[in-house]
Specification:
By secondary structure, the protein is an alpha+beta fold. The protein contains 4 helices and 6 strands; from the N terminus they run βαββββααβα. Strand 4 and strand 5 form a beta hairpin. The longest helix has 25 residues. The chain is elongated, with a radius of gyration of 16 Å. The termini are far apart.
Length: about 170
């Protein structure tokens, strides 16, 4: 990848994000900051970057990546089904919830084992993301991990909506 294929700005569609807890907003903010600090993102149909990416959900089932160059030139949209991610995201949320609950009472060995499982699911989701976008975008592993975090944050918002305000 050439040196200018990276994201310089990232927007998340406000309509895709219901009101969330301060912790969820912080998680999303950290993921965006980490992504913007260091990333490799090369839409295969684009000769040069850097890029402004807008993320949104369509019908809660598709992630939309709206791409522009930093000069405003349109680079198109990429639409990706979230269906292949459902199991991983569900398992990821469950283990994260268990991990956060265990921090107060579990042994350090149990917490470490849960954290390893959480990281393993996150890596699996990141790999699925890279594979799902392989015909559209080339990105490095860390960029994929940070993007997967954002997908989870957006999907968590959908879970809040679907459950009537209670995170399932």
């Amino acid at each position: 990848m050439s040196g200018d294929h990276y994201i310089i700005d990232l927007h998340i569609d406000g309509e895709s994000l219901p009101t969330t807890s301060p912790e969820m907003r912080h998680e999303r903010s950290v993921a965006v900051c980490d992504l913007l600090k260091e990333n490799r993102f090369h839409p295969l149909k684009s000769l040069s970057g850097p890029y402004i990416v807008s993320l949104s959900l369509e019908d809660g089932a598709r992630m939309i990546f709206d791409l522009k160059r930093s000069n405003g030139a349109d680079r198109g949209c990429i639409s990706m089904s979230l269906k292949p991610f459902r199991r991983i995201i569900k398992d990821y949320f469950l283990i994260c919830e268990s991990y956060h609950n265990a921090i107060r009472t579990a042994t350090s060995a149990r917490i470490e084992a849960m954290d390893m499982g959480r990281r393993g699911l996150h890596n699996e989701g990141s790999g699925l993301l890279t594979d799902s976008l392989r015909h559209s975008v080339k990105m490095d592993f860390n960029t994929s991990r940070r993007m997967f975090t954002l997908i989870c944050a957006l999907h968590r918002g959908q879970r809040v909506i679907e459950s009537g305000g209670n995170v399932m």
